[in-house]
UniProtKB/TrEMBL annotation:
Coiled coil: none annotated. SUPFAM superfamilies: Calponin-homology domain, CH-domain. One of its GO terms (molecular function) is actin filament binding. It comes from the Eukaryota. GO terms for biological process: actin filament organization. The gene is ORF84157. It comes from Arion vulgaris. The lineage of its organism: Eukaryota, Metazoa, Spiralia, Lophotrochozoa, Mollusca. CDD domains: CH_SF (cd00014). Residues 29-146 form the Calponin-homology (CH) domain. One of its GO terms (cellular component) is actin cytoskeleton. This is Calponin-homology (CH) domain-containing protein.
Length: 166
């Protein structure tokens, strides 16, 4: 889907490159790997297909329909005795997937994650590396927030800080 878009130019292209670079920095820091390990530990293979590896392509494929994300947030909500978010397990269209992703975001808010950490459904659905960084940051933040509440399994991602010299 992303291949049919016109190439960005000017400041839009510069921002896109910078976000892709940030994604690569997070990958080098092991953030995506920590996300895969944590998500696979929360939702066992008996309930959902495991994420095979931490590559951008595989992570996007596994999360794109929102089902796995909804299962993760439901486990977190259940650990606090809160109600689950509704989602559809069979995703036949982008609209259903977008609904699942919005349910995940709603569940994050109910769990107590700040609104600033959420992402737009298009960031996940389209899967472009620059926008997918928002998805990675959301799950990364959710992991730290779950740790602060004593949720098990523990999220093992590392906090990374980057200085923008431009």
């Amino acid at each position: 889907m992303a291949d049919t878009r016109a190439k960005k130019s000017g400041i839009g292209a510069d921002i896109e490159k910078k976000l892709e670079y940030r994604y690569d920095q997070e990958e080098a820091a092991g953030t995506q790997n920590a996300i895969v390990v944590w998500v696979n530990a929360i939702v066992p293979q008996s309930e959902h297909e495991a994420i095979a590896n931490h590559s951008h392509k595989e992570l996007h494929r596994s999360l794109r329909d929102g089902v796995l994300l909804a299962k993760v947030i439901n486990k977190l909500l259940a650990s606090e005795g809160k109600g689950k978010v509704s989602f559809q397990k069979k995703v036949a269209s982008p609209f259903v997937a977008m609904g699942n992703i919005e349910s995940f975001n709603k569940g994050c808010l109910e769990y107590g994650l700040n609104k600033e950490f959420l992402f737009q459904s298009g960031d996940l659905w389209e899967g472009r590396k620059a926008q997918f960084l928002n998805v990675v940051n959301c799950i990364h933040s959710l992991g730290f927030f779950a740790n602060s509440k004593g949720f098990q399994p523990t999220y093992t991602g590392q906090q990374t800080k980057y200085v923008d010299n431009e």
